[in-house]
Amino acid sequence: MAPPIIKKRNRKYIVCANCRRRKTKCDRRYPCSHCTKAGIKCVYKLKDGTSLDEVNILDLTRDITSKEGSPRADAQSQSNARGCTSPILDIKLPKVKRSIIFSKPSMTVFIGSTSWIWLVLSRPSFKNLFSGIDSTMHKQKKEFQDNHKSISHRLTVIDSDPEQLAIIQLTEDIICPNYYQFQERLVYFQNNLNGLLYSNFVPMDVVHSLFLSYFTVNDGTDTPSTASSASLPADSAGSGRLSKFLPPKKPYLYSDISLITAIVSLSVIFTRYAANSPFHYQLTVPADELISLSLKLLNASNFRRKKTYQGLLSLILLRSCLFVFDNIEGCHQEFESYPMLQTCIDYCYQMGLHTDPDITETFLFKDQLIMKTRSMPNSGRIELWNYLQTQDAYHSIAIGTPILIHYEFCAKFKRKSDSFFETTREEAVMIMRKLSFVINSLRTVSIREILNLISQVIGFCYRIPAAKFLLPGIPLVGIDLDEVAYLFKLKLLTLQNVPSLCSMIMTGISSLHQSNPELLKNMETMNLLNGLSKEMYRQSILSIAISLHHIRYICEGRSVFGPEKNGKYVVYFRDLFATSLGQSFLTWFIFLLPRATKNPELIGELQNETMLFSYPPEDNGYPNNIDLVVLEKAFFHDFNGQSVNLGEQLCTKLMSSSELTTFASSFHEALRDNMIMKSSIDSYLIVKSIVVWPYIIGTIEECKASLDSRQMTVRDVIKIARTKVEKEFNEGGVNDSGDQLERMFDSLFADQDWLNVDEIDNVFEKNPLAELNGDGDASEKAWVVDGAN
């Protein structure tokens, strides 16, 4: 009789190696609570003692769109993430979506799930640590406002009886002496801005006709074709009248003059800091006065009751003047301009512009000849509706508010052709709308759904590589720079959503560890989630680095948009630069600070969200200088077959304090003389805030001994850093001269070992809204939450 076969049980360890060695109860998370408290690396090993291999995250998500970038590829989204069949990725996670209402007696503001501000709100310890700097930036905001006194700009909520005589007098005082100046700037807008900003939907033939009908040249003066600055009358800049104003017979016609003035205002904003003025006639009236006149004329037209194409166009252009391409109204154009955007969309609903003009009949029941000369062509109406769809989608994901335009009732985005430019425009709108519908809706989502969105965003950016914007080795011939600028803006608009989406994935993985511990007993599942967290960490860091390098290339004049640092394309990108710079630098600092200070509170906060310990490895940094090409090579590894090791090496180097300090130094140098960025309050504060990060890091080095001996806390260090920042700001060195900034950066590198701080004794308050409990304005005090001030 054969001896019985003894089967050996092939057990797998389900506790970490440290807890098994110490014989303590392990909670089976990654990292487990014991390893987190002890500050040691949590490792799970197989029976033979080897570490678990990292799952290849490349199989989780694949590009779901064709290389041509057709929006029809959205139909393939259900087959995305086919490389991984783990059911844990399909679990609905209610804690992934978050929203908050900031409320005070004077204001209530809602922030939804897609807003990048959650990158800060999810880290209360960091918020409380940084709260000592907010009042410093608030002082800078007040200083800017005191030095840039502006005229009060407002639209009436309901129509009121305007003071027509006063408006007529103001129009005569501003426009009549500057007849040729206005005419010249209308032509400039037609040739240089109408296509770039509004896809030529502003009917300039109608605008020129209206201008000539309301303003006639006085007898005896030169004609526009023969007049010169030397032949103008001596009083042309003062009380003289080169032209005569013919006031409208009916109030609603004041919207015509409002549109004319708004167009001239935009031309002034785009050219006031140009190295070489494109105009022959100098206009001394500032943009602020022109905007004020345009608003008064629009209010006088009873535009809310008397809806005209000219009133709608004037409203759209004034919104651009007040908040987008110039901004002296507030620190956050997404929030401040949102009511005007809603008004524009409501205007379109009531005028029927949301319908398809090809199938909607128009009936002219009065003054048919006049109406035909004042109406917009169908092509212009389509482009106007495309523009508002783009703005609606962007603001929805920037603030987290619901989409205002629904395709069940409205016409969809309609491209003019199947060219790469037109299909890319449409695809960008569809991606942003999908982001809003998936993330901002009330339904719960799974990790796989968010992975699908990340794949779409990265795939879209992959089809617009950095090579399109960098200076080529050959002359630029036959390239439409306006189209290139539009594509660049779309790329950055979509790219800046990656950190928020990756953060949601990491939050979802952390939620799975807490709510589904039984599922995590499977080592393959744990390895899968751990590898996914690492991928999201890498993509977050790489995406913000790509955004910053893109912006720096343009600000330094090393792009296809030319060497001029105050040209029209920099004005066109101004609002996007302000938003991306604030978001990217702050996100970079949030990830860097725990690693730099070794502070257990900050480290624990980061680990609770990312479920990563000591990642990326500190001894695996990228050996060469980081540039935009290598960043995109690592970021698009799913599409070009690049190993994830390159991304890990880049993240290791980016997570060094010296890299942040060096980059901030060169970036501030590029922005120091940029009048466009310094002329608006939101971008001005961003330029100021760039130097805050190195000051904080440098102060930690100076106080290292006191921190080690527990004589000081991190909050004390922040107070010292705040004092130094205020001193530099008050002396004006950061604004006007690079000497003080250069000395500061030199002092930071005097000792390369200044960040070896073993432990910082610090206890933070856990209230994420601590800055909002004071008597001040929430939008002014909690500048980190708002993102700009």
Automatic annotation (TrEMBL):
Signal peptide: none annotated. It holds the Pfam family Zn_clus. The keyword Nucleus applies. Residues 15-44 form the Zn(2)-C6 fungal-type domain. It comes from the Eukaryota. GO terms for molecular function: DNA-binding transcription factor activity, RNA polymerase II-specific; zinc ion binding. It is found in: Nucleus. The keyword Glycoprotein does not apply. Keywords: Nucleus. InterPro entries: Sec_Metabolite_Reg, Zn2-C6_fun-type_DNA-bd_sf, Zn2Cys6_DnaBD. One of its GO terms (cellular component) is nucleus. This is DEKNAAC100429. It comes from Brettanomyces naardenensis. The lineage of its organism: Eukaryota, Fungi, Dikarya, Ascomycota, Saccharomycotina.
